[in-house]
């Protein structure tokens, strides 16, 4: 029963770019997508709940509580339209099946919205002095080349583990264009500068422009 997206209001978007961020290194993905949410003036339209999330409730500053969840936002105030999915809630279980179950639901929902592509955003810890590097992996070599032309570097490690890797892999499995974008972070602590670099790169790479959304 819990494994589903609970839609509060149908998102009025057309072939959106579907961007996903989970807690990770430097919280780069969450910081970048929070900035994207502000840039696009996205509005919340749904939640995703799962028994694979931690066994506690989240209490807001005003005392109101809710189950751990992923939150879904949509915007037609940018072209192309975007759907943004993010949460501070990690997948709790170490069982790979839990990751597959949750992330497959997310990719399937992206397909239901007729998304043009899925972009999973995260950070990667680096010992290099060059902290401005953004790494890319994708389901289509042309996507990698296009992002490299804008300054990204092909991710050279043999594996891309965790949520970001599975999101890209499951996108390929379901026939959806998938991109993994990793911003270099100085440490595992929240890195606002790395998040902003990734956000700025996303806006440039996706050719996002503000538009006057119809009333």
Name of the top-level CATH class: Alpha Beta
CATH architectural type: 3-Layer(aba) Sandwich
Dominant shape: globular
N-end to C-end Cα span: 35 Å
Report the C-alpha radius of gyration, rounded: 16 Å
Can you say what the CATH homologous superfamily is?
Answer: PAC-like subunit
The tally of domains stands at 1
Helix content: 25-40%
Mean of residue pLDDT values = 90
Which H/E pattern describes the elements? Answer: EEHEEEEEEHEEHEHEHE
The largest sheet is: 9 strands, mixed
Provide structural commentary.
- By secondary structure, this protein is α/β, with parallel strands linked by helices.
- The chain has a single domain (12-45, 70-207), classed as PAC-like subunit (Rossmann fold).
- It has helices spanning 28-40, 96-112, 141-149, 162-173, 192-205; strands at 4-7, 17-21, 43-49, 58-59, 65-66, 70-75, 78-79, 82-86, 117-125, 134-138, 153-154, 178-185, 209-210.
- The strands form 3 sheets. The chain has a 9-stranded mixed β-sheet with strand order 1-3-6-8-2-9-12-10-11, sandwiched between helices. It has a two-stranded antiparallel sheet with strand order 4-5. It has a two-stranded antiparallel ribbon with strand order 7-13.
- Helix 3 (141-149) links the parallel strand 10 (134-138) and strand 11 (153-154).
Summarize the model shown.
This protein is of the alpha/beta class and 215 residues long. The protein has a single domain (12-45, 70-207), classed as PAC-like subunit (Rossmann fold). Helix content is 30%, strand content 27%.
Primary descriptors:
alpha/beta; Rossmann fold; 215 residues; nine-stranded mixed sheet; two-stranded antiparallel ribbon
